[in-house]
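Why run this: before we spend reagent on co-expression, it is cheaper to look at a predicted model of the complex and decide which construct boundaries make sense. The entries below are exactly what would go into the expression plan.
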Amino acid sequence: MPTVVIPALLRKFTGGVERVEVPGKSIRELVQRLGERFPGIDRQLLQDGDIRPSIAVSIDGEIATGGVLDTVGENSEVHFIPALGGGEV
Amino acid sequence: MAESTTTRDFKVIGTRPIRPDGVDKVTGRAKFGADYAFPGMLHGKVLRSPHAHAIIKSIKIDKALKLPGVKAIVTSKDLPAAENKLEQSGEMTVNPMHLSMNILAHDKVLYDGHAIAAVAATSPHIAEEALRLIEVEYEVLPPVMTVDAATKPGAPILLKDLRNNEEGDKPTNVAQHYQFKRGDIAAGFKAADYVIEREFNTAMVHQGYIEPHNAVGIYNSDGQATIYCSTQGAFDVRSLSAQVLGMPVGKIKVVPAEIGGGFGGKTTIYLEPLSVLLSKKTGAPVKLVMSRSEVLRASGPTPGSKIKVKMGATKDGKLVAAEIWMAYQAGAFPGSPVAAGALCIIAPYTIENFLIDAYDVVVNRPKTAAYRAPGTTQAAFASETVIDELAEKCGIDPIDFRIKNGVKEGAPQVLGPPFKRIGFIQTCEAIKNSEHYKSKLTGKFRGRGVASGFWFNAGMQSSATVNIHTDGTASVVTGSPDIGGSRASMAMITAEVLGLPVTDVRPITADTDSIGHTDVTAGSRVTFATGMAVYEAAKDAERQLIERAAKVWEKKPDEVEFRGGMLHAKGNGVPPMSIKQLAPRFARTGGPITGRASVNARGVGPGFATTVVDVEVDPDTGKVQLLRCTVAQDAGKAIHPSYVEGQMQGGTAQGIGWALNEEYFYDDNGTLRNSGFLDYRIPTCLDLPMIETIIVEEANPGHPLGVRGVGEVSIVPPVAAVANAIYRAVGVRMTQTPMSPPKLLKAILKHRGATQHSAAAD
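The model came back. Tokens follow.
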């Protein structure tokens, strides 16, 4: 089952738990399941149905580019991290 | 060059051909933004706030409009309402409302130099005269210039709508809090034999590009607009201008001019929408060019910072804990690169226990923009100074200390996922084995310092087209403005794939209507991501060449091979055919050959650099003289080694300027007092020794040619390296930038006083 690593400031939604195993084959499914299990956390990750522009998704150590459409493997590790770069225009 | 780990036998890549745009640039034929001129063109000027923080009570433009030669004046009333939400824009995110408020102040001015109105007139002088006739009534508010001032209870609030996730509906100047943690911080410090804790403050500095911002806007009566400007990202200028103007993206074409430096500062917009707005009002092309003063006051410098670092190590030199608090001055609107700084600050090292808190704070200074490895030089100044101090406590050579704790393939990144193949240790070893580091530094008040740095690099979207011409030469078209020699790299990649001499490939930077979407030239991404698109486009052309040769030879494509720049028919005595021989037959075999590719590049390989500097300090004046400097950087595969070296030298030179001289100097009213290059002192060739370079080539497995980005990471170590060298020269640990003569002298005198006092007490 894929593992989602919860960002430090969102662990208030998970009772402090850092790593959560979540069933799903795409980022969309993982976020949906996370939201079902930890109400409110999905709203922190999504904007207009996709990952917030201020957040990047790392799948197995690599920054993914497809937002909620990206697929994950059975043993994938997923991190939600600040979108990096030069900041905000 | 250090030993290459890229083992492929390249013919073009790794050589040093003359840059394709060289002749135009040295003869003055290259067209920069300010060179554009059109019949009937008007000239624009911008009225800027003399106050750092004030409510705009009224703006009266009647007198200015009556001045002969004045054709139009625009204020924020001419801009459509923009949404207060975050959207993606290339490497950055954008809040359309804040962007609009920065282009022309709405109800408040938020920094000295904030644009209030723009005038179009028949000459720049008349436009300037008109600015003096615009009457603005202000209610001046107290300026908030520092993180401390912005966060103290009762601080004046800059943006009434700004909220963060932690303070509920309370107005605030703290736009964002990031936190990263791992392990058990208390247990980590308990295991430490040595703990160092220091506070660092860095000054706001500017990228210092030579060419000021410029734009020519032409709005046609059919609703189409064209913008000519100097930019790092024509597609970003198009989308951001469309946001501000409320126009569809497809109605704007942006033509990127040659660029006289950007370093991150030309990844956003200032004048571009104003030129279109004024053109729309007047029906004529309108050109705006900033003065140097305007560039410094009102474009996007990098944040000043306050950083507290506490780190612990065991006696044998193992880093065991780090606790970091950092706050960056975002400028007037949210969005400093403090998150990037937080993720880079200890990135070169494996530390099992850490806690990093990072804050983005708005202040009455210009909205900050990207600057080479945004947010990371400030951070590395703090962490690399403390690491130097810990190495000293442990009695370990500072390079060996870094090697002992340095990250290797498989080590966890700050965020957790493991690093893939990286070359940090190799950069340390390259410096350790350098003639420079092995040489003995002698003489009074001289010292040697080292420091390292990390930067993520970026991927993002790029497009490329490779056209094979009827004489067998080629052109490669991309949408990436060339700010560091990328035309040469793109031509070399094309030439390598197609087996052509590089002089047979002409690289073109296209406008936004002539190539597929290409994100901004930033994040050291062009040779990596646009290079990947070019590689794929050339491979696409190669596939078509094989099909055409098969047609000529009446064979199947799988019976034809392309190698060494020649097409070979498998299995019989047909002589091979060159592209030049095949090209005249394109028309008879299906028409022109155009290879195409668009990528959203994955497989980014991060960059590391390690720098050693020797300095001599004048203890009577505090003046620091750089004696020698060597930088080692992991480039992955260096496509054009000279331009890689140029990037390493450029980044290092900027880092040294940041260390020793550069700072935004504001008075108590929040007015910038050094808005010119005489007073804002960037290094010249007289200030710097030859910067020696060692390219480490640890191939990036995520790129077909092993490429990493090379444009940024070399700016990260120099500030800390200089501070560490100063310490060894005069025994003073500097914790603020710039380490300019007055500041260093003060520290030396304080240190001398403390030492004498201590000696007297003994």
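Chain A has one domain: 3-82. The mean pLDDT of chain A is 89. Bring this page to Monday's planning discussion.
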